[in-house]
Fold each of these.
Amino acid sequence: MKSLLLRFGIAFLLLLHSCFASDTPYPKAISDLKDAIVKGLGFNTEGEVKITGFDPRDAEVGHSVEYQFHLEIDHQVIPFKLLEDVKRWDYVDLPIFRAQAQTALAHNNPSDNGLPVLAPFMLAGPMELWIHDADDMRLSLPHDVEAGVLKKVVLAEGAAVTVKGSRSVSLRQPLDFPLPLNRTQNGFANGLLTLAEHLRHASRTQSSPILSLRIVGPTSLTAAPSSTSPSLKLKRLAPGLVELSSPSKTKAKAVEEIPSVDIESEAPTVLTPAQFATLWPLASLNGSNANLLGFEKLLHSVLGAKADKKGSFRLLKADVSAQTYLKIGFQAEKRVKEGELDGYYPVWRTKPETVRTHFEVLAKVDGDKVIPEKVVPVNPVVAVDNVAPEMLSGNVSMSKTPVVYPPPDPFYL
């Protein structure tokens, strides 16, 4: 009976081992990611280099905010791409890892099928918003208003809304900004605040807003809480097009309270924190925000000496989006050629026949694709030499080792 149970146990372990050791095909997203990395690193999987790993069960998933900017300075376009640190990494079964795509992340955000969204932010007019992929968007002023499917929302001067559930915000038209750029003082990004006020002044002096944003997937637009303007007025201009404005008295009072900015003046405008503590049109972003200070420092480093001289630069592209990222590891194993490791190991040591290097890739999930962003080696293997005692003594036998007599111990009996 014991032998029968032993045989059954061995057979079960062999079956289990064969199941895990079988070459399970990669999901298409992981297979495409593997091919892109191998091509980018110049590896040849069918030759001397063997690539293993890319196990979806070991992939860690996290959400972050990605910033993309294109600046035109002296007819030269300079692109930037910045990524916030991922605050939390989890093991999540993404739909692209399974044979049948399902809403795997719905438990994180059921209203949006698990897609990452930006934190709520506040926008103030005058400006226009182009809405995309938001058929069920709510409009509250502050009570819900039935306005149909909105494609465009115009915010008049004095009107402010809070945007929730958006996946990305981007600039629709290039913007020109004057120089010089003020330096950061008292912990406030005075340079960016000055540029924002220049843009706001230009928007108020024109018949139509010059700032136009494209917002993807917002779930609601809510009138921003304000003591002077508790509600907003809605005016239908066309099917899918509405204008939001504050009461006329509040609007006139708001315009009077905002000092004008002399754009033609050569002297840089000095803004005090009490006057402009927020960056227009982002009324919810404070001028002392760490990201804002970092952007201003980056802009100063790019402009260089031009930041203190009269001139201008153009913002061609500005895109802020919530993205899903994943980390996954793989291993590259290369067969060592004759004499390739000479000089790296002692002459007496046996050279390894293969060299293994572990990598970790940071990739962005874009729909049903996984796009590699950065590949770095991780946990390098440190070689530990185990040397026999005779090798340390020069391979001399004990019979030839000189005898050393220690001094006598007076307490020895």
Amino acid sequence: MAAYSYRALHPTGKTIRGVLEGDSERQVRNQLRGQQLKPLVVTAAKSSAVNVSHWWPKYWYGLGVNVSWTRSIGRRDLSVLTRQLASLVASGMPLDEALSACAQQARKAHIKTILLQVRTKVQEGLSLAQALQQSPTSFDAMYRALVHAGEISGFLGQVLERLAEYCETSQATRQRLSVAMIYPLVLLLVSVSVVAILMIFVVPKLVSIFDHSHRQLPWLTEVLISSSQFLSSYSGIMLTAVLVLSLALRKVLSIDRYRLRWHKLLLTLPLIRHVIIQADSARFASTLGLLLDSGVSLVEAINISVQSMANDHLRQRTQQLVISVAEGGSLARSMEQIDDMPPLLIQMVASGERNGELARQLNYAANNQERELKTLMAAIGGLLEPLTVVVMGGLVAIIVMAILLPIFDLNTLV
């Protein structure tokens, strides 16, 4: 059976959208009629692409603008889905029935579509790992490699349990880091907005009392008036320019060679460099430890773990480990040749190779790297808060002084 997306009319007049399985479009229409629904549109679900042609302006087609995009399973949804699938498979339920049950419990239509497509491929005789390869944006190489290892070893349920724990831990770490940076960023945004409002709307009204004065104004007041007039006249152009530059930068960074140069530049900045190395090394170590613990070969596990790193320059340098280890070299000694690798991680790898517990030592190293990253992000957030307050207070003080200085001069003359 295949998955079909439908749009049907409820007896109350409400339009309902969803996904159903069936052997043909006619059978799906009959199922809908059996549910007292009037089928309007029934189409085969294809790679979870969202069709927006029913509302997208027609003239965009002439410009070559694509009117569809692919929706994938988010990290939070993937964590929940993996936990559900692990529980069902561990209980002895057949794989196709487990996938069907997960699809029925999914609240989002595109997730249900992806799961039903995977179930269809499994029923056609493909393995689960091969079926997941049909949706690479939802199930990355690491996810598929673990599933493949679980199927080969015959312990798919246990491997899915480990994978669910990994997804949950990664999601929790990401949320903690996001929460730690929300307050400083919001405070910075509010501060910039307050200063901009003062300069554009408040300052012009306050300094208008000096328009009819023929006296020489203090230089600070002159600078304030000029800055206020500039922002009032060109604020729209500046916002447009910032937006255009942001879009242009995003377009440029989508090109591999420019993104590689940008990531290399980031690694030269002292504080940002430390954050990137901590985050990528923690991701590399945790992924490698999980893959090794699930029975994936060392070379394949390194190759997949390297792809999990976010910085292209760091990933390119770490890719050398695959060749070095494949030629028979030690993982720890190969990592020593990479300057950006944290020394503690190299020590833990060397210890794991000596005592035969490499996966366990990698997990310890990953946890340690994540703790250090969390501490570092908390320190950065704690530093940004008072710094933003001091900078905002200084700017407001300068604005107030620029307004009060001419008034003090007038009082002195009187």
